[in-house]
Amino acid sequence: MYKVKVYVTLKKSVIDPHGSAVERQLQSMDYNGVSNVRVGKYIEFFVEKSDRNVEEIVKEVCEKMLVNPVIEDYRYEVEESVNQ
Length: 84
Fold this sequence. Notes:
Layout: E1 2-10, H1 17-28, E2 41-47, H2 54-66, E3 72-80
Antiparallel strand pairs: 1-2, 1-3
């Protein structure tokens, strides 16, 4: 069994209204040193061992379901897991 962690972020060229709202709120709370806030997604799932390469499975899941490749980038980590 593999544990997969996927980190999804907006591409640098895409405006992040949620990140801007968080940044404004932080500044209103006197966190003036915080800037360029970007908000993303963290997704975790498990993949059972099989004949298929786990990296291929993860890329397919990300590109077909979890990520909008037009506006988002992603990276992932795969680790062997004994328990869920």
